[in-house]
Design goal:
heterodimer, A: 122 residues, mainly alpha, Helix Hairpins, 65% helix, elongated, disordered C terminus, B: 933 residues, two-stranded antiparallel ribbon
Chain lengths: 122, 933
């Protein structure tokens, strides 16, 4: 089970990082979302995997660690705030630059330097 | 108490001085003199102890763990320097009163001067090396401010910056050196360090410590090759030059060498480093001084040269040389300060300091001329003046060095040669300025004597020159003896302060220096021509070049690192994460801890596979944004299931509701955005990114696996035990959120609120036109608000609100709580927006979300502050339950109020964010503007 859980986190992180490195805002936001899933699961995992031991007093004989859960709960909500902020930032970028490139470039402006061409490719 | 008072008084005076500026220039000058007068009175009673060779110690603890204490120590050496600082400081205050012009910021000047005075006194009176270091840095800072007093002058600013860079850099070296010394000795107290001389000198780190400390001293005292800052510091007002650059600050390096003389001197390394540096400085300064046309430039290089002389004397290592060094400190301070003041008077009265234009002033200002001539004669070493006495001692000592062969000739020759130069530049100062024909084209003509009392400080100093020169034993004998005794650790050699010691070799050297100097001055044209053939190295230009080179390189580096491309930053960030973690991960390898692996049950295995496939599919189809989003939502749902599966019902519910809100948010964004991503990166780039992603993914897998299989201990036992008795709830996660870690939660909802307000602000007055279709050729549906959805959504609202109320109320004891309930309410309201549109919904919502956020934060804070009223710390409810059962009941309610705050903040923030995006589209904007959402 632990190996499977680790693989899930690895897959989420790898997918997230790949999307994070894309050039347009929407894939980057999706990448960050995937990355947050991975990170949240990782934080959660620091309390170890327990079955049927929810930390509600009186519901079972043993309880799993409630602290990572409390941390992850707020992390999920803060993660949402961050995602929303980024979405709006990218919308503002779209409105201002008529373009959704992460580097905030204006549409159809030719790459100004060699360096920038390298970054965007093509 | 009197010693700390002496140091503290000038600082207090610096604060008080500006208040006297209202009362006029005289008032502030008098007020600024008070600290020095009081300090002198405070030092006076200690004289009897010091004359007997004792020390006065006054120590208070500060940071004993670091070895830093408020320890002040007065001995002969400290007293001598303190007197120079205080007395010349007083004279400078009088002088500056006449020197500064009416429109200048007198208050600032006196304040800074007093700060500087306090710092200097701190250096000489510190009984702890770390404390001394603090004052040492303070002198660098205050002198920076004083040199750049005329901030409108570029040269002044540059000169000040250079002085700060050089002396501040030296200060860093000094700090390192002192830390080493403290490490060797085990204490930073001066008494301990001075007593541990042999231990220090025998230590392997001695050479390093000595080099570092000397670097500090040499930079401060403008020794070659760090001498270049001093001439450029002459951009300061002349009272500052007279005070800092003749009598006090540049002597701080000398003081340090004399102070640590018992601890550091007497080795070969000391001898070679100090004496040769001194010798080079002595000769170079004297040589350059001859060719300066600027009055203050001449004096500056002469100061460099005299500082070199004192350093050389200290470097010689003999006891008599040390006595001569201290004697020359006194003499140089008196004649050089008076010369600077005279130069300032001349500048003041003629409007220039160029010696090619200032000629024949004898006729216009005979009184000043007489004073300046006496002081300059002392500088040249004319008999019956104090400069002569110490110079004779110097000549005598230069013959006593234990050098072999031809080297034995070097010091006396250098000494005589420097004497020749000194006579030549002194002669030039006298002859060029006061005689040598008529003034040429003076800005102010005719010059006349300055105000009567502007000359008063000069008169005092010149009088001292003569007194010491004629009656050395009576005037400075006891002071010199006690200072020398303190420097040498009590072993004062027999020496005689006589006006003439009879006809001997040193007198002959003096005689030769005189003849040579006068001859050189008479042949000055040739020397000027000779000197003109060399390109002068401008220290300032070199320094400025160096600085601008560094600045350019820093700019280039920053520009390379921060080129405005987010993609690049992201890659740098991820790659550096890999770089930092690669080594420990590689050495640890694929590790399964002692707990081993547990078995996988089928449903979990299948769900995990679906999750991984969907995550990878999101990546593969990420350019088809809509499909990618659907796949992403599947991933989020399975994450929620994962939480449920592994005993975290609260997380599952939170994740589920956040997932819904997030996907709605992204869909909303996608409405305005292009619905597919163009292919932009090359094949190579994609392969590179895949490799990076795989590396990070692998790393995370390895770390997670290692962590999951390790046994661990947690602080959570406390939470589990105290949740019910302390927090009054059985749902430990919720009790942690609203009680144990309530402050965190308060911060968290504040962040949420700020993000929502940021979103609102970012989208205010922004209009985005959605594309006419979904980008794949399909037009949007004409049925904006489908009938079925509308019909289902409306009855859903009260049901959803009821569910959220239930979840909210049971939260303290069962899975649920403010966060989750808030999200459920938000989802229910968002559904109304989706189903019936912005206008319809907004018409039925009579409150602004800003207010909801504000109220939420207010409730949470009030609930937290409520515990203050009962004498408990902010946001504590846990312990009250144990002590007061009655109040304990109240506390459960207070946690509920806190959770209500969380609930409202979450609703307000979520809806404000989504509604802000929703009203972007033109047809909803018209209406919502009227509503002011």
């Amino acid at each position: 089970m632990e190996l499977l859980f680790a693989l899930v986190i690895g897959a989420l992180t790898a997918s997230g990082v790949y999307l994070l490195l894309r050039a347009r805002t929407f894939p980057v936001i999706m990448g960050l979302t995937l990355l947050s899933y991975g990170v949240n699961l990782f934080l959660f995992a620091s309390g170890r995997l327990a079955t049927g031991q929810q930390p509600v007093i009186g519901t079972s004989a043993n309880y799993t660690d409630p602290l990572p859960q409390a941390l992850v709960l707020t992390a999920i909500v803060i993660g949402f705030a961050m995602t929303a902020f980024l979405v709006v930032l990218s919308l503002r970028n779209l409105a201002d630059n008529n373009n959704d490139h992460v580097d905030g470039k204006r549409e159809k402006a030719p790459p100004s330097s060699k360096q920038e061409r390298e970054v965007t490719g093509k | 108490m009197s010693l700390p008072l002496v140091v503290l008084l000038p600082f207090l005076g610096a604060i008080a001085a500006p208040f006297f500026a209202q009362g006029g220039r005289t008032a502030i000058a008098i007020a600024s003199s008070v600290p020095a007068l009081v300090a002198l009175a405070a030092l006076f009673p200690h004289w009897s102890v010091l004359a007997a060779g004792g020390t006065v110690l006054d120590s208070y603890e500060w940071l004993p763990i670091l070895g830093l204490s408020f320890s002040f120590r007065l001995d002969g050496l400290a007293l001598l320097f303190a007197l120079l600082i205080l007395v010349i400081g007083l004279l400078v205050i009088i002088y500056a009163h006449y020197y500064l012009k009416a429109h200048e910021n007198v208050a600032k000047f006196y304040s800074l001067l007093l700060c500087f005075k306090g710092s200097m006194l701190g250096i000489v009176l510190s009984g702890n090396l770390l404390l001394m270091l603090i004052f040492w840095e303070l002198t660098s800072l205050t002198s920076f401010l004083l040199i750049s007093f005329w901030t409108h002058k570029q040269d002044a600013r540059r000169g000040a910056r250079m002085a700060l860079a050089v002396t501040g850099g030296g200060g860093l070296a000094l700090m390192a050196g002192i830390l080493i010394i403290g490490n060797i000795v085990g204490s930073f107290e001066l008494d301990d360090v001075l007593a541990a001389g042999d231990q220090i000198k025998a230590h392997a780190w001695y050479p390093v410590a000595l080099t570092l400390i000397l670097l500090g001293a040499f930079t401060k005292s403008a020794q070659f090759p760090f001498h270049f800052w001093l001439p450029h510091a002459m951009q300061a007002p002349t009272p500052v030059s007279a005070y800092l650059h003749s009598a006090t600050m540049v002597k701080a390096g000398i003081f340090l060498m004399a102070r640590l003389y018992p601890a550091l001197a007497g080795t070969e390394q000391w001898f070679y480093m100090v004496s040769f540096t001194g010798m080079a400085t002595l000769l170079l300064g004297a040589y350059i001084a001859m060719f300066k046309h600027d009055l203050k430039g001449l004096l500056a290089y002469s100061t460099v040269s005299h500082l070199g002389l004192i350093t050389l004397l200290l470097g010689m290592g003999t006891q008599l040389a040390a006595v001569a060094a201290i004697f020359h400190v006194i003499n140089h301070a008196t004649f050089k300060a008076s010369l600077f003041m005279a130069a300032g008077i001349i500048d003041h009265e003629t409007g220039t300091r160029d010696m090619r234009r200032i000629n024949g002033l004898w006729r216009y200002m005979p009184h000043t001329a007489t004073l300046a001539m006496v002081a300059a004669a002392s500088m040249a070493g004319v008999p019956l003046l104090n400069g002569f006495l110490s110079k004779e001692m110097f000549f005598a000592e230069s013959l006593q060095l234990n050098l072999t062969g031809l080297w034995a000739w070097v010091p006396p020759i250098v000494a005589t040669l420097a004497g020749v130069f000194a006579v030549a530049y002194s002669a030039r100062f006298i002859h060029d300025v006061f005689f040598n024909g008529k003034p040429v084209d003076l800005p102010k003509f005719p010059p006349h004597e300055p105000p009567r009392y502007m000359k008063f400080p000069v008169e005092i100093l010149v009088f001292a020159c003569v007194m010491v020169g004629v009656f050395p034993t009576i005037s400075v004998g006891p002071l010199l003896y006690s200072a020398a005794s303190a420097t040498l650790g009590g072993n004062v050699p027999d020496y005689q302060l006589a006006v003439v010691h009879g006809f001997n070799l040193p007198l002959l050297m003096s005689f030769m220096a005189f003849l040579g100097g006068l001859l050189m001055y008479s042949q000055r044209e040739r020397f000027f021509n000779f000197h003109a053939r060399f390109k002068e190295v401008d220290g300032k230009a070199v320094f400025e070049n160096l600085v601008s080179k560094f600045v350019n390189q820093a700019n280039q580096f920053t520009g390379w690192l921060e080129n405005g491309s987010l993609q690049r930053y992201a890659i740098l960030l991820v790659v550096s994460v890999i770089a930092v973690t690669a080594y420990p991960l590689a050495t640890n390898g694929f590790h399964i801890g002692e707990n081993g692996l547990s078995t996988i049950d089928w449903p979990t295995g299948i769900a995990a596979c679906v999750l991984m496939v969907c995550a990878l599919a999101t990546v593969v189809w990420h350019r088809e944004r809509f499909y990618a989003l659907v796949l992403l939502s599947v991933v989020g749902l399975i994450v929620a299931l994962t939480f449920a599966r592994f005993s975290a019902p609260d997380l599952a519910m939170t994740q589920l509701s956040v997932e819904v809100v997030t996907i709605v948010l992204l869909m909303l964004a996608l409405y305005y955005m292009p619905s597919w991503t163009p292919m932009e990166s090359s094949r190579t780039q994609r392969i590179r990114d895949i490799l990076i992603a795989l590396a990070v993914g692998t790393g995370m897998t390895v770390i997670t696996l290692a962590m999951l299989t390790q046994p661990f201990s947690s602080i959570s036992d406390f939470f589990l035990e105290n949740s019910k008795p302390g927090g009054g709830g059985t749902n430990v996660v919720n009790v942690i959120l609203v009680d144990f870690r309530g402050f965190d939660t308060l911060g968290e909802i504040t962040v949420l609120a700020i993000a929502a307000l940021g979103i609102y602000a970012m989208l205010k007055n922004v209009a985005l036109t959605p594309p006419p279709g979904d980008g794949l050729g399909h037009a949007w549906t004409r049925d904006h608000y489908p009938l079925m959805l509308r019909q289902i959504a409306r009855p859903m609202l009260p049901l959803a609100l009821m569910v959220s109320a239930y979840i909210f109320l049971r939260g303290h004891n069962m899975p649920g709580g403010g966060f989750i309930a808030g999200l459920i309410t938000s989802v229910a309201l968002i559904l109304q927006y989706i189903a019936s549109g912005m206008i319809w919904t907004q018409d039925r919502i009579s409150f602004r979300y800003h207010n909801v956020i504000g109220l939420g934060l207010l409730f949470a804070t009030i609930a937290g502050a409520g515990s203050l009223a009962f004498g408990y710390p902010f946001l504590t409810t846990a312990f009250g339950y144990i002590n007061w059962p009655v109040v304990g009941k109240f506390e459960v309610a207070s946690a509920l109020v806190f959770d209500l705050g969380v609930y409202m903040a979450v609703i307000g923030a979520t809806l404000l964010a989504l509604v802000s995006i929703g009203r972007l589209s033109p047809h909803s904007a018209i209406k919502s503007k009227q509503e002011g959402v």
